[in-house]
Amino acid sequence: MDLALPPKVTDRAFERLAEINEAEAMPKALRVAVEGGGCSGFQYDISLDEPSEDDLVLEGAGQKVVVDSVSLPFLANAVIDFSEELIGARFTIENPNATSSCGCGTSFSM
Q1: Has residue 3 been placed in a domain?
Q2: Within a domain: 2
Q3: C-alpha distances out from residue 91 to 4, 21, 55, Å
């Protein structure tokens, strides 16, 4: 059985978060959460937020990415990245726990 590891955040994602926070007087953490819903059963909720007490805090490039304790099992061994494509730039999640996902990239099932 694979050991469940916390999600990994790429340098590119931390760098993009640093760019976003540059313009802010009070830098925020990037919150990655999993919620019920979406077209495949679960969906990712990515927002700027303050860290909470029960969050896992991942740090890099002076930035913080936080995951709440409820979402953490759904994101074990996942990779949080930043992607720039023709259709737009966004934070992405490569999740090995997802058995299927939909075209929007924000919804998945397990």
Answers
A1: no
A2: no
A3: 22, 15, 19
Nearest to 17 by CA among 58, 75, 65, 68: 65
Which CATH number covers residue 23? 2.60.300.12
Query: CA Rg, the chain, in Å?
Result: 14
CA trace torsion 98, 54, 8, 44 (10° rounding): 40
List the chain residues with pLDDT less than 50.
1
CA–CA dist 20, 64 (Å, integer):
12
Q: What pTM was computed for the model?
A: 0.85
Q: What is the pLDDT of residue 102?
A: 59
Name, in order, each residue with C-beta under 8 angstroms of 27's C-beta and a sequence gap of 6 or more: 21, 63
Residue linked to tokens 């303050």: 50
Which pair of tokens denotes residue 33?
A: 């959460």
Give the Cα separation of 54 and 10 in Å (integer): 22
81, two tokens: 């990245």
Residue whose entry in the numeric block shows the structure tokens 């494509």: 85
